[in-house]
Design goal:
Blueprint (H helix, E strand, L loop, with lengths): L6 H8 L2 H9 L3 H7 L5 H7 L4 H29 L2 H19 L4 H29 L2 H29 L5 H22 L13 H13 L2 H31 L4 H28 L2 H25 L3 H27 L6 H19 L12 H23 L9 H4 L11
């Protein structure tokens, strides 16, 4: 069968720019939910009379929701299509954002944030899975690069906008703003997003089939390695998201507005390097790009640990954070492509594993950086070094040790994909 007649290619030729833009916008649920209120997290801690670690649990709860929600949404979208679960998830996100704004105590806010994460997870997993429905080969890697760029852009806008909004409203107003963003995305989905997974290509068999699909995925050493590497560098990134606001504001004295601009600089780097990594993966090597990204992650994390131990100036901290963050961005397109390329028939389920690892491990590490209190940067350095070092070891043990197969090479992945009754 020629590539021109493969189902994936046929759908790729029919997708227009507006649906592609909407798919990219779905990736903002993760960064915007996390980043918008980071500049006011210390103020939230004070107003609700909470400990630093308790306030950081609002981040952990959202991350857990984003992780668990993807494991649910991925298989559901493989079975029922992408559009209906997406619309339900966006509506739920709007409602739970409003509930966050009304929360009177830290425990209530933690619970609301968990449900908000569950709802936001639907958009993230469908953005990745629908892209696999529509694209193959080099175009697929470029698409994942665009997702990384949009996530970076949202991460730039989020804290900067949050810092500016903090001058005119409190943290509750920021959650109202999140609900408004959800409304805009809902309208965009209603009017421009069409179903990308035809009924003939959907999975059947219920929970038993879902279990078989997960076992099939986890038996693939390269996929498992890509998922774990992505999750571990993501854990370092979420440790940064959780701890940097306290380090830069409480230790180094940055204002919420100054912090938002420092955060925006890192997010700009995330966007630029994510875009560059997609092209580098396509034209050079997925695994080579991944190694470069891991090296940057390790360098940045080591710099953070050195800054904490030696009490280096703020420029050393910001430089180390920047190096680590752009390293995470560099690893994102190749790990996503390595994980999803060979599984067009269960792209939603495969994507959910990536989300579970990224947000689940992030949820575990986020509270650890607060154990030393708001005036101690050492936990942030230790957590990021441990996570990035484990990512490098995982790469060596899983992906690198396996003999490179054509199915994981960009040139080969650009060739026609085999089709089946249940595949795209």
């Amino acid at each position: 069968m020629s590539d021109a007649h493969s189902p994936a290619t046929a759908r790729e030729q029919t997708v227009g720019r507006p649906p592609a833009v909407v798919l990219c916008l779905l990736t903002v649920f993760g960064p915007i939910s996390m980043d918008l209120y980071l500049p006011v997290l210390p103020a939230l801690t004070t107003e609700l009379h909470a400990a630093t670690s308790a306030a950081q649990l609002t981040i952990t709860a959202c991350l857990l929701g984003l992780a668990i929600g993807q494991v649910i949404a991925g298989p559901v979208s493989d079975r029922f299509g992408r559009r209906r679960p997406l619309l339900a998830g966006v509506i739920a996100y709007i409602l739970t954002s409003a509930l966050c704004a009304l929360s009177p105590t830290i425990p209530t806010l933690i619970a609301a944030r968990f449900v908000q994460g569950l709802a936001g997870a639907v958009g993230i997993v469908i953005a990745q899975a629908a892209g696999r429905d529509l694209y193959t080969g080099g175009k697929l890697v470029r698409y994942y690069g665009r997702l990384t760029v949009i996530a970076g852009l949202a991460a730039i806008i989020g804290p900067v906008l949050g810092g500016q909004l903090a001058t005119i409203t409190d943290w509750r107003g920021l959650f109202v703003f999140l609900a408004a963003i959800g409304v805009m995305i809902l309208l965009a989905c209603l009017f421009t997003f069409r179903e990308t997974l035809p009924e003939r290509d959907r999975t059947t068999g219920g929970l038993a089939q879902t279990g078989r699909d997960f076992r099939r995925l986890l038996s693939d050493r390269v996929l498992l390695g890509a998922v774990l590497v992505s999750g571990l560098v993501g854990a370092a990134l979420f440790a940064y998201l959780s701890g940097a606001t306290y380090v830069l504001q409480d230790i180094y004295g940055l204002s919420p507005q100054d912090y938002s601009f420092a955060f925006g600089l890192n997010s700009l780097g995330f966007m630029v390097f994510g875009f560059a990594a997609s092209h580098l993966s396509e034209r050079w090597s997925e695994q080579g790009t991944l190694v470069v990204g891991l090296a940057m992650c390790l360098t940045g994390a080591a710099g953070l640990l050195a800054a904490a131990v030696l009490h280096l100036p703020v420029i050393a901290v910001i430089g180390s954070l920047f190096t680590m963050v752009v390293g995470v961005a560099t690893t994102t397109p190749p790990t996503t492509s390595l994980a999803l390329t060979d599984y067009p028939d269960i792209a939603g389920t495969a994507s959910s594993l990536l989300g579970l690892a990224r947000f689940g491990l992030g949820a575990l590490t986020a509270p650890l950086v607060g154990l030393g209190g708001s005036h101690n940067a050492l936990p942030l350095g230790l957590v990021t070094v441990a996570a990035t070092l484990l990512a490098a070891v995982t790469y060596v043990v899983t992906i690198r040790r396996r003999t490179t197969a054509p199915s994981h090479d960009i040139a080969a992945s650009s060739q026609p994909l085999p089709t089946s009754a249940s595949g795209t």
